Amino acid sequence: MRLRISDIRQETASIRAFELVDPYGTNLPPFTPGAHVDVLTPAGLTRQYSLCNGPNECHRYVIGVLDAPDSRGGSRSLHAHAKVGDELEVSVPRNHFPLDASATSSLLLAGGIGITPMLGMAEHLARGGASFALHYCVRTENAAAFRERLMQADLAGSVSIHADDGPAAQRLSLDALLSSPDGGTHLYVCGPAGLIDAAFAAARRNGWPESRLHREYFGAIPDVRTGNAAFDIELGRSGVRIRVESDQSALDAMTAAGIDVPHSCEQGVCGTCLTRVISGIPDHRDAFLGDGERADNDCFLPCCSRSLSPLLVLDL
After folding, report:
1. CATH of residue 270
2. Where would I find the FAD-binding FR-type domain in this sequence (predicted)?
3. CA 158 to CA 131: how far, in whole Å?
4. Do 179 and 213 have their domain in common?
């Protein structure tokens, strides 16, 4: 879709909210809490952004964009070049981070820009009278985005903001927060990899079952592995073999060979390039698949993952 930027709001020194609408005023495709859209940024790079408004708002999409120091150019170009009235190419919403309808209560934990999907989730839960609590972790008080919405009457009583530079009493203890899991509460975590890993570790220590743990990463997990081995990919439908060198991604090797694999983030976050594996053992290095999906070894993300076996046969 081509959507027009109808408003830009500076939420913090480094986060802006962009409101996107149809240029002709028609309603947009519906979405559910936790959904995201792909946006073709002014830099020509496609990036994923969570929708942070509620799904009852069918006339607009609102995304929060962080101008991160380590930006590869996409988000930074929105900050630097996008202005009200400009049009952007935007995908229909997809949701890899939905609320579980069976939950009797929801515990939402956000870090930094990870507040964006949580905000829409919280407003949806509040509107439906559901039980929930939202904990928002930031480095400084000034880094808390969407504070005005978080302090609205229907959310304020269920929202806690934890600032690293604030008084010790308001800092978050994950073990204390997750110490007493009941049978119906689900945990949702979104933000930096360190926060997600720490929250999941604390939840597991305290007996939370995997079925009630949900997460969405913002950005790739740093991969410190070295000494990548070269391997071969075989396209199962044609028998064509493609060599993936040690300093090359599987996606790059296939692209160079003329194989069109849909992709977007190239960081193993969005799942766009997910490909079915017929045989071989993938070396999963993504932030998209869950532990159970990785154990099945029947799919992988060629943008970042590699192979533990000399040959990986793909359903392409």
Report:
1. 3.10.20.30
2. 1-100
3. 9
4. yes
Question: In Å, how far are 118, 147, 313 from 151, measured between CA atoms?
Answer: 14, 6, 52
- The 10s digit of each residue's pLDDT in 39-58 is 999 999 888 899 999 999 99
Rg of the chain over all Cα atoms, to the nearest angstrom: 21
* Domain interval for residue 28: 2-90
Q: What is the pTM of this model?
A: 0.80
In 3-state terms the chain splits into helix, strand, coil percentages (rounded to 5) of: 20, 30, 50
Token look-up 């999963």 returns: 284
Q: Which amino acid, residue 108?
A: L
The count of other CB atoms within 10 Å of the CB of residue 82 is 19
* Phi, then psi, of 243 in degrees rounded to 5: -85, 130
Please return the burial class of 281, using the count of CB atoms within 10 Å of its CB with bins 0-12, 13-18 and 19+: middle
Rounded-to-integer distance, Cα 244 and Cα 291, Å: 25
Strands 131-138 and 159-163: parallel
d(CA 230, CA 264): 24
